[in-house]
Amino acid sequence: MTSHPAPGLTIHQPQRGFRYSLDPFLLAGFVLEGGAPASVLDVGAGSGVVALVLARAGVATVHAVEVRGEWAPLQAASARDSGLDVVWHHGDVRHMSAPRVACCVSNPPYLRAGRGPVSPDPLRAHARHALAGDLDELVPAMARLAPRVALVLPATREAEACQHLRAAGLPAQRTLRLGDRLVLLDARREGGSGTSSAPLYDPASGFSERVHALYRRAGVALAKGAEANT
Length: 230
What we know:
The chain has a single domain (about 1-220), classed as Vaccinia Virus protein VP39 (Rossmann fold). By secondary structure, it is of the alpha/beta class. It has 7 helices and 12 strands.
């Protein structure tokens, strides 16, 4: 399956199984809004959407790491067909020698391992459940590699994520809560306390202007019928 979320941007995904949704574009826009980093590592990259969007936006050096090798040919095809340079790594960021960068970004699995039924599709299972490390392991791993970490998470995990970020020496500098469903965190060594809130979606008017603004920042059109991956 192939999609074109922006002019010149091609994303290859499995014919069946997990599909990206709002989250990667919101995260990319949020990162760029806070100041485009010189280099990025996308952790748990999946199809590589965040990495590709940031490369398209002009981030000079973009790396991406994914533990599931099935994504590798799709990632390579997407970068080739989009004319973008991304360095793809296959491995577990908790245990591999990953490059040091200016910022680590991640759209980690929403659910803890052992919570709820796990999909028989391995790509969907790893995208939804923390089968290769949860926040308590991923956050310290990212903090070792960068002085800035940006995450998109379900709102119910904000306190937990902030706790792990503070413990890793990266307190949240910018926090954006979108309705009661999603939270975006931009954590840095220097810390900060900028917190804002906005609606995510209204049945009468559609996605909020804040959501549209993040999409514009990412250079992506917000498709009708898109849904948050919650």
